[in-house]
Amino acid sequence: MIRPLLLLAALLVPLSAQAGDAALGRKKATACQTCHGMDGLSKLPEAPNLAGQVEPYLVKALSEYRDGKRQNEIMNVVAKELSDADIANLAAYYAGIQIDVLPPN
Q1: Quick one: which of 70, 41, 66 has its CA closest to 53?
Q2: Which of the two residues, 13 and 42, has the higher pLDDT score?
Q3: Selection from 12, 45, 38, 22 nearest residue 96 by Cα
Q4: 48 and 39 in contact (C-beta within 8 Å)?
């Protein structure tokens, strides 16, 4: 019984270490607000809405922009300076913004 618990604990440690801090992400998001808005709703037609996006997707996208695997002239420059913690925090912040979806009448 102890071995399965140790295995489970070992698997959970990396997950919790990757969890972002939404409050720190909000502070870091000031650099993103011109295009994506502090509310995560895009201010430019070519920039996506980030509010309510799934956190792992945001982490993956930002990491790929930073590493050059995903190409966008602006995002590659902005993301280049982000640490893993910055990415996790930004993802936690934007994923934590609640959005309401209303079907058309």
Answers
A1: 41
A2: 42
A3: 22
A4: no
- The whole-model pTM stands at 0.80
Please name the residues in contact with 99: beta carbons below 8 A apart, sequence gap of 6 or more.
Answer: 40, 51, 52
Q: What is the C-alpha to C-alpha distance for residues 13 and 25, in angstroms, rounded to an integer?
A: 21
pLDDT classification of 101: cutoffs 50, 70, 90 = confident
pLDDT of 3 above 90: no
In the structure encoding, which two tokens stand for residue 63, read together?
A: 């990491």
Specify the length of the chain in residues.
105
Report how far residue 38's alpha carbon sits from residue 43's, in angstroms, rounded to the nearest whole number. 10
Q: What is the mean pLDDT of residues 76-97?
A: 97
Question: How far apart (Å, rounded) are the C-alpha atoms in residues 89 and 99?
Answer: 19
Query: Token digits for 72?
Result: 């966008």
